[in-house]
Amino acid sequence: MTTTSNQKNTILQATELTFHYPGQSLFSNWSYDISAGMTLVLGGDGRGKTSLLQLLAGDLLAQSGQLQIENVSLHAQPDAYRSQVFWVDPRTDTFDQMPVPEYFSTVRKAYPGFDDAILAQAIEGLGLTPHINKQIFMLSTGSKRKVWLAAAFAAGAKVSLLDDPFAALDKSSIEFITAMLNQFAADASRAWVLAMYVTPQGFPLSGVVGLGD
How does pLDDT run across 101-156, given as a tens digit for each residue? Predict the structure, then answer.
């Protein structure tokens, strides 16, 4: 594993994090400061990209170590910690029976900084308007991912975790996402963590966590 980071305002701090699946060692005493802006988690299949996002979200619990967003610890204040993180596993079927507006409503209730103007911009920019009143199970893989991304942009969370955000998307949507993330990267109070197979072009990165090929 290789890590690099720029000296920016630290948003999320991982300290001596250890997590293993049975028979598979992923992270041992891993420490890293996730800064404001965009951090890239880079690696091949099976290297732990999604698992790391799940750990940072508090969906997976490490065998040891600490996670802290500013002064809020996952161990001591789990609900307060998770309320500052936006994370949806793009493969989830948890929300399949919800109409898209109902899903956005649940996100709006969960995040005090939710911005309806950004949501409207994302719905238009990602081409979701024709699908806006469908139930989520009716959407294609790409359209589901667009729903999760629109919610991430609008939520206003302190930390947003995006797993392979360009997967299954058309060129115009990728261009829109790139523009939005570049806009958000300038916010010194928020961190975005992107897990990807290759380094994306056109992003100002605050740090890189290299998990290997």
Answer: 999 999 999 999 999 999 999 999 999 999 999 999 999 999 999 999 999 999 99
Cα end-to-end distance, the chain, whole Å: 10
Q: Domain span at residue 199?
A: 2-212
How many Cβ atoms from other residues are within 10 Å of residue 187's Cβ?
12
**pTM for the model:** 0.94
In this structure, are residues 104 and 151 in contact, taking their beta carbons and an 8 Å threshold?
yes
Average pLDDT rounded to a whole number, residues 10-35? 95
Compute CA distances 167 → 150, 182, 187, whole Å: 15, 18, 25
pLDDT in tens, 78-100: 999 999 999 999 999 999 999 99
Number of structural domains (the chain) is 1
Give the 3-state secondary structure of residue 99: strand
* Burial (0-12, 13-18, 19+ Cβ within 10 Å), 64: exposed
- Residue 169: CATH number of its domain: 3.40.50.300
Name residues whose C-beta falls within 8 Å of residue 183's C-beta, 6 or more positions apart in sequence: none
Q: Tell me the one-letter amino acid at 166.
A: F
- Residues 86, 90: Cα–Cα separation, whole Å: 12
